[in-house]
Design goal:
Elements: E1 2-6, H1 13-24, E2 28-30, H2 31-41, H3 44-55, H4 61-72, E3 81-84, H5 90-103, E4 109-114, H6 117-130, H7 140-154, H8 156-163, E5 167-171, H9 176-187
Parallel strand pairs: 1-3, 1-4, 2-3, 4-5
The chain binds adenosine monophosphate.
């Protein structure tokens, strides 16, 4: 199963990716997680990414596209993968199409998790409050920036993948179980 999970911050991409990992035994490729690991390790990539991420802006297309291209070559991606948080811009989606066709990989579906803005802000702030491990990009101003960035730069991907015939829309505001059942119904 080769999937993209698309959706605004707080729509439940990470939670649903975890359920899909358990059901299908395929890895989640999260550019956000890879960048946070680079920051924690203090690598040059991490140093470049940190300020941008703390503001809620996007890291450059070249950086994340390179990360994903390398990651797709690893053995665990052979039987499938879930792209979570990538692509986030039209240029990234176009590069991804090129990378996949070079590697001879075909996507099965793009799942778009839909949710309204105020619910998302409340969710992300609650996640920040509840977790001991607070993300530095989870305060209200930064959350609003991330939602605006999503609207302007990422939401055009919905029609991009609709045009490719790959898009499946799922209402992300239902319970975790209902959302995951809807995703499975959409991809099977
Ligand atoms: P996430 O964990 O997916 O919410 O990503 C956290 C942050 O990492 C984002 O707000 C961006 O700053 C950066 N990031 C993650 N994925 C991408 C991407 N595909 N393109 C650009 N920036 C990204």
């Amino acid at each position: 199963m080769k999937l993209i999970l698309l959706g605004p911050p707080g729509a439940g991409k990470g939670t649903q990716a975890q359920i899909l990992i358990d059901s299908y035994g395929i890895p989640q490729l999260s550019t956000g997680d890879i960048l946070r690991a680079a920051i924690a390790a203090g690598t040059p990539l991490g140093l470049t990414a940190k300020a941008v991420m703390d503001r809620g802006d996007l890291v450059s297309d070249d950086i994340v596209t390179g990360i994903i291209s390398q990651r797709l070559d690893e053995d665990d991606c052979k039987k499938g993968f879930i792209l979570d948080g990538f692509p986030r811009t039209i240029p990234q989606a176009e590069s991804l199409n090129g990378i996949l066709s070079e590697k001879g990989i075909t996507l099965d579906a793009v799942i778009a998790l839909e949710a309204d803005e105020e619910t998302l802000v409340a969710r992300v702030l609650k996640r920040a409050q509840e977790s001991g491990n607070v993300r530095s990009d989870d305060n209200e101003n930064v959350v609003r920036t991330r939602l605006n960035v999503y609207k302007e730069q990422t939401s055009p991907l919905v029609s991009f993948y609709e045009d490719m015939g790959l898009l499946k829309k799922v209402d992300g505001l239902q319970s975790i179980e209902v959302v995951s059942a809807a995703i499975k119904a959409a991809i099977e």
